[in-house]
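Hypothesis: this fold can be encoded by more than one sequence.
Test: take the structure tokens below, design a sequence, compare later.
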């Protein structure tokens, strides 16, 4: 998934690392109203759906529904908890820049927020997706370590032309991951928690597969950017995720190059199947 660098040329104050000062004065009352609506809507039903670590992180951040948060305030809370900070960026930045920031415990947050007519879906991450979806779990030490390791891994993957494999790991964990708890499956993926529809679908619909986490399986499984997931992968703990990504991936990439891509809706030999999806309502188009 090659992110295009969408540098917004309206700001002449973008630094070489694509960071910028959060242009707080540019937010309109409509922007703050969109934030409030999204924040209230998610908050209502994420209890009992999002994992405790996410809910604790969101509470610890101090973000409120009243207005779009000041990034420095969020950074203060993050720094105390895990040494992470957030940096404002104009939108998607080049992969090497993105990974470089993660490796230095800086999470790039798009400064602008979606328009009211984009309430339910937008392709590119905005301030709500990044702050509400990604930042709360950076308050968790193990997940914070995982995200830094992912950044370091991304820089290495780029050098080995293996980003396509690693991007799937990010997709099926950081963006759309589920975690098993004593009370049942819970959400930790950012792409899910920042989407009302998918927060319900991923746990309650019989349509998608739910499969136990398997690093190599995930790294040769395709996905679509613009539909709900056909398969969700389930970890037992963040430690499991962190431990799985400690080794050097070079030998993994060599193995993966010999394997065919698994279609996102398939179940294959060796899968730990928690739920075999009914496939109803699936979009027939192929994976990216
Ligand atoms: N840039 N701002 C921003 N946010 C992202 O999530 C992002 C990015 N650039 C690259 C990227 N994600 C993905 O291509 C990598 O996760 C593979
Ligand atoms: Fe994201």
């Amino acid at each position: 998934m090659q992110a295009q660098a969408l540098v917004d040329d309206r700001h002449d104050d973008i630094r070489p690392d694509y960071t910028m000062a959060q242009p707080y004065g540019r937010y309109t009352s409509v922007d703050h109203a969109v934030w409030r609506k999204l924040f209230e809507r998610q908050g209502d039903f994420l209890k009992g759906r999002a994992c405790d670590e996410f809910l604790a992180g969101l509470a610890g951040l101090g973000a409120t529904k009243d207005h779009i948060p000041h990034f420095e305030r969020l950074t203060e809370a993050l720094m105390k908890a895990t040494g992470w900070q957030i940096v404002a960026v104009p939108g998607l930045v080049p992969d090497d820049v993105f990974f470089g920031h993660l490796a230095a415990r800086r999470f790039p947050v798009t400064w602008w927020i979606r328009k009211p007519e984009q309430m339910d879906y937008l392709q590119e991450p905005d301030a709500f997706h990044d702050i509400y979806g990604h930042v709360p779990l950076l308050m968790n030490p193990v997940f914070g370590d995982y995200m830094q390791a992912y950044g370091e891994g991304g820089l290495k993957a780029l050098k080995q032309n293996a980003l396509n494999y690693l991007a799937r790991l990010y997709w099926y964990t950081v963006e759309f991951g589920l975690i098993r708890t004593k009370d049942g499956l819970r959400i930790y993926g950012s792409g899910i928690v920042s989407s009302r529809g998918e927060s319900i679908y991923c746990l309650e619909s019989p349509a998608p597969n739910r499969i136990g986490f398997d690093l190599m399986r995930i790294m040769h499984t395709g996905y679509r950017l613009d539909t709900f997931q056909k398969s969700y992968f389930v970890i037992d703990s963040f430690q499991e995720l962190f431990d799985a990504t400690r080794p050097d991936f070079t030998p993994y990439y060599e193995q993966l190059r010999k394997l065919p891509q698994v279609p996102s809706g398939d179940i294959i030999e060796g899968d730990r199947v928690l739920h075999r999806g009914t496939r109803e309502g699936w979009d027939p188009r192929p994976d990216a």
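The pocket of 7,8-dihydrobiopterin (ligand 1) is lined by residues 1, 3, 89, 92-93, 95, 98, 108, 110, 125, 167, 170 (CB under 6 Å). The chain has twelve helices and seven strands.
Hypothesis status: open.
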